[in-house]
Amino acid sequence: MPVPILGNAIAFALEDPPNYFVNWRKQFGDIYTFWAGEMPIVCINDVKTINEKFVKDGDTFAGRAQITELFEITRHGQQGIIFEEGDPWRTHRRFALRVFRDFGFGKNLMQEKIMDEFAYLMETVKSNNEKGIKDHSIQDYVDLAVGSVINNLLFGFRCSENKVEDFKEQKSIIGAVIKDFGNPAAVVMIYRAHIFRHFPFFSTVYYRMIENRDKTWDYFRKNVEKRKALIDFDSDSEPVDYVEAFLRKQKEMEKSGETHYFTDHHLYSILWDLWFAGQETTSNTIAWACVYLIKNQECQKRLQSELTKVIGSDRLITVEDKTNLPYLNAVIAESQRCANLLNSNVLHRTLEDTIVHGYNIPKHTVIINQISSVLYDERYFPEPMSFKPERYLKENNVFEWPEALMPFGVGKRSCLGESLARMELFLFISNLFNQFELSENPEKPIDEKRYFGGTISPHPFTCVMKSRSF
């Protein structure tokens, strides 16, 4: 039961995510209301209704919960792509999609950049093996590789050796901001954040959020200013990264005299969104895939048997190989399901009156498609807590992506970077396990407990990485 002021925050503090949502679905059914502090949130938990409402009637459910004060102290407001709604959101989502399409999202140009980062990762592992290093932090390797992909896309530079410390610092800061979002104290503060700065415990969280927000903003501001200084705005050259594309559009709109949304504030907010969406989620999914395959050696052996049969060498695997690797695709799909990275999807709000499961839902109701509950629902995934890639393989070993598997969200607010994430997951995981056998160091066992830091990540771990022979 919700408690005044606290709502259901006690449940969030006592149980691991997303167990409370899974249990509430079993107890209350496919639609119920829970409370984040003083904010009631309608929760939808079945695939049929999620598709009917958030996909087929997407415009009605495309709004975002207005959490003005909490977003003010964590990211200077709701501007951007993830938390914005209305014309600014539509404008920036369309612009970002066009820019990324021009940069080769889903095409060979993007693949080449990802492959460059994997090659660097591979050489790092081999070099460390030659030095006698037995314990490899695959999380650190993958973080840096994925971070280089997104930094290259946003700012035009990769996280090479002289940028590693900057990257680690920024990742830790954004990680702290994201972790604060999942803090039960933040859940309580969600509706009226500013008043809680006067209360013990909450005030510590409140001012820490502001401190981390300002550090994040400074990082983006510094890199935008560096990038701006290098741009010749009088030239007609094509932009080479997102920041340049945005700044050129900003100049164009300023010259036209039109009212526009291409402000510096919007740029910093969008960089926050894209950095989080493009780095944190992909990196953690790959880390979880490694954990599952280390802990389930029979799955790793089956995967590498398929790679040996289809690839048969240490050549780098490309997206052209994807259709010939059904078990690999199943491993990636099951890793995404089991990882279940987002404890709770981003809150929507209805933009019109509507009806769900026979209930009248007024305009501006905060509502959520609780995908984290769906991914652990035995109606869609029997034995949901078991890692079973074979569940996606049908007759004749054909891979099939089920309707209930929705790691990127659905409808108009689905993940902007889905095509990039899919490519990264395939290229990194396929090449990683084609090049190396991963195993657990018995002296340093891997803890499979889920660590809630905004997204769900494994606890830091190391593993043995042995080069495969062909």
UniProtKB/TrEMBL annotation:
GO CC, any one term: cytoplasm
Top-level division of the source organism's lineage: Eukaryota
UniProt entry keywords in alphabetical sequence: Heme, Iron, Metal-binding, Monooxygenase, Oxidoreductase
Alphabetical list of Pfam families matching this protein: p450
CDD domains: CYP1_2-like
GO molecular function, one term: oxidoreductase activity, acting on paired donors, with incorporation or reduction of molecular oxygen, reduced flavin or flavoprotein as one donor, and incorporation of one atom of oxygen
Stretches assigned to coiled coil: none
Annotated residues for binding of heme: 415
Requisite cofactors: heme
GO biological process per UniProt: organic acid metabolic process; xenobiotic metabolic process
The keyword rRNA-binding appears for this protein: no
Family annotation (InterPro entries): Cyt_P450 (IPR001128), Cyt_P450_CS (IPR017972), Cyt_P450_E_grp-I (IPR002401), Cyt_P450_sf (IPR036396), Cytochrome_P450_fam2 (IPR050182)
Family per similarity comment: Belongs to the cytochrome P450 family.
Listed name of the protein: CYtochrome P450 family
